[in-house]
Amino acid sequence: MASPDQDLAPALDKDGVRLTVDDAIATVTLTNPAKRNAQSPALWRALAEAGRSLPGSVRVVVLRGEGQSFSAGLDRQMFSPEGIPGEPTFIELARRDDAGLDATIAEYQEAFTWWRRNDIVSIAAVQGHAIGAGFQLALACDLRVVADDVQFAMRETSLGLVPDLTGTHPLVSLVGYARALEICATGRFVQAEEAVASGLASVAVPVGELDAAVSDLAGALLAAPRDAVVETKALLRGASDRTYDEQRAAERQAQARRLRDLAGVAE
What we know:
It contains ten helices and ten strands. It is of the alpha/beta class. The strands form two sheets. A seven-stranded mixed β-sheet has the order 1-2-3-4-5-7-10, sandwiched between helices. A three-stranded mixed β-sheet has the order 6-8-9.
């Protein structure tokens, strides 16, 4: 796939991650197509840095991967006895005490958490393989637009591990407990038609139309006033943790803020 952000000066370009900003739209691109955008701790640190680097003007963040795959998951070198130079091996991680291991995994998770911030709407443009950590990275975003060749899979369980990069909560929220369990426990592929039917993806398009579809969606998101989108996203994100009456109250409070802001009346 051609990169729509190649003509922009990158705000960040390191460890397989490039961030470019074009006014209200930021694009985060995974830039190691030769390894199918395999993920490593260095890449996770770069993704977390990209989130911290967003200017206040950004309203929409697009996440994409160069090449034929969005991300094929963990760098296989992490599974080798020697691991990735400069990074802890799985054996070294296993030997840490509970607090140390928890802190390390929490640091890795930071690459996956900022995409749901209320002040932005994030869109994953997913083609080809999105496996394991790649699947979880796509799930970290608010919305997913997929190519018709997409293949999602959660392979951690088949490796004797569990998905630990924040993917379980959105997966259950999107497809329900039973299907989420079946997807994770079997490690099977979820393709485009099922992804759309189950709610994992908003729409599936031919590979050559993926960038255009994402651009159209980003434009539609930018058409609404920013504060209204921010308030609406916050309402929807919190809905599952509130009772019906609590959500009604939250709607009233949010609407009061919007009405006062539009009328220029101080609270």
